[in-house]
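Lab channel / #folding
Pinned by the channel admin:
"Please post every new chain as: sequence first, then the structure tokens as a reply. Keep commentary short and put observations after the output so the thread stays searchable."

First post following the new format, from NK:
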Amino acid sequence: MYYIGIDVSKKDLAVFDGKDLNFINKEGLKSFKKYLKKKYRLSEIAIIFEPTGIYSFYLKEFCAENSIKAYIVNPKQSHNFARGVYVQRMIRLMVVLSINSISSLRQRISRYLK
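Reply from TO:
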């Protein structure tokens, strides 16, 4: 399964598929479909996006017509998830820095004691 994140706006779909891409947000989403068909089998992808009222209608319709799994994420949940991921990354960074500092400190002490 391939997961594709999309930021839906009035004019376009900002797609992240390993790289940033933009497609016009209009009925049928022909250019987006052409891109997906070149790269994947439609049955093997899942699209993840936040609901944006009427602007996400074409994307919802596109997914339904092409039997593509769509995960519509509540913006509050995605914000909390992103914040949680950020906090986890910061904690990991602090742990790594602490381990490196302790290791460096041990080396200095062992040199001093020799």
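NK: The chain has a mean pLDDT of 78.
TO: also worth noting, The beta strands are 2-8, 12-16, 20-24, 45-49, 69-72.
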